[in-house]
Amino acid sequence: MKNLNETIGKMIDKSSICFLSYCDEEGFPITKAMLKPRERDGIKTIWFSTNTSSNKVRCFLNNHKASVYFVDKRFYRGISLVGTVEVSEKQEDKDRLWRIGDKMYYKKGKADPDYCVLKFTAEKARYYSHFKSEDFFIES
After folding, report:
1. Under a CB-based contact definition with an 8 Å cutoff, are residues 49 and 102 in contact?
2. Among 38, 43, 45, 55, which one is most buried in terms of CB atoms within 10 A?
3. Bridge partner residues of 71 (DSSP)
4. Where are the alpha helices (DSSP H) in the chain?
C-alpha cells in the first residue's frame, strides 16, 4: 500500500470509536468500544483516557497484550493494530490528555484517582481493504 502511515493515520483520526481488545484473568479475549484516541504518534503510539476502576485497566496490569481496531465504514476497510498497553497514572500524562468535558466523568478533575491514561504501542498490523488483507510490522 502507498502512504501506509498517512492512510491509516487518517482512518484513526476520522474514527469516532474504535475497539480495544485485551485478555481477562482467565485468558479469554474481551473487546470494548472506546472513544477515539486522545493523541497518537504516527500509528506506533496511541493514547486513550479511561477509568482506573475499569475491568480493562485491571486486566492490563496483569497482561499488557492488546489490539486496537479502527474501521472506515464508508470504504469498508479496517486496521487491526497489535501490541501492548501501559497504564499510566502519571500526572503529566493525565494533564496532557485532559479535555474540557472530562470533568463530567471525573468529578475531582485531572487529579481524580479514577482517571488514568492508556498508552498503546503497536508492534504489527493487519490492514483490510478491497477484499484483501496485508500484514506488516510497525516501525519506530
Report:
1. yes
2. 43
3. 78
4. 4-14, 55-62, 91-97
| DSSP string for 73-134 | TTTTEEEEEEEEEEEE--HHHHHHH--GGGGGT-TTGGG-TTEEEEEEEEEEEEEEETTEEE
pLDDT tens, position by position, 17-63 = 999 999 999 999 999 999 999 999 999 999 999 999 999 999 999 99
Grid cell at residue 95: 494533564
Angle formed at CA 137 by CA 134 and CA 140, multiple of 5 degrees? 140
User: Which residues does residue 88 pair with via DSSP β-bridges, in sequence order?
Assistant: 117
Percent of the chain residues past pLDDT 70, beyond the cut:
99
Let me know: does 132 contact 123? Beta carbons within 8 Å: no
**What is the average pLDDT value for the chain, to the nearest integer?**
95
0.90 exceeded by the pTM? yes
**Cross-strand pairs, 120:** 46, 85
